[in-house]
Amino acid sequence: MAIREIRVVPDPVLRTPCDEITVIDDRVRGLVEDLLDTVNDDGRAGLAANQIGVSLRAFSWNIDDEIGYVLNPKIVELSEDEYQDGDEGCLSVPNLWYPTERAWYARVEGTDLDGNKVVVEGTELMARCLQHEVDHLDGYLYLDRLDKAVRKKAMRALRESL
Q1: Domain 12-161: assigned CATH number
Q2: Are the C-beta atoms of residues 122 and 104 closer than 8 Å to each other?
Q3: Residue 133 annotated in active site
Q4: What tens digit of pLDDT does each residue of 88-143 get?
Q5: Which one of 6, 75, 85, 109 has the lowest number of neighbouring Cβ atoms within 10 Å?
Q6: What is the pTM of this model?
Q7: Where are the domains of the chain?
Q8: Distance of alpha carbon 79 from alpha carbon 105, whole angstroms
Q9: If DSSP codes are grouped into helix, strand and coil, which group holds residue 26?
Q10: Which residues are annotated as a binding site for Fe cation?
């Protein structure tokens, strides 16, 4: 279909929880094509539907030469005793990277375009991507997860970049 423009802060669609997909129709099929086309670009690990202006629960990923998507994703498991604390960035918060603690392992369940159950899981970058994209669908940005002092610095940098 098309490579779509990425919405950036302070666009309100990024702060609005996305609606569950209840009917898989041509609109949803087109959305998935756009998500896959748009995430398939250098430097892009994941993309939530609201980042292209659509408030539906769907995201795509592009990790380790694997591109995929999931509809109505829910995080069903996170490692409770292993964490990662690397720099994280976001297409909707361009050029700002900050250390963000995430679970080392994440497992997401959802469906595909045929209504079949989909399980996506991984460690490190894939786990970070899954958590980051589900946060988007819930109306959160990675900036919301930053340590208080780092968040203050990040918000100042964000204001200066707008």
Answers
A1: 3.90.45.10
A2: no
A3: yes
A4: 999 999 999 999 999 999 999 999 999 999 999 999 999 999 999 999 999 999 99
A5: 85
A6: 0.96
A7: 12-161
A8: 5
A9: helix
A10: 90, 132, 136
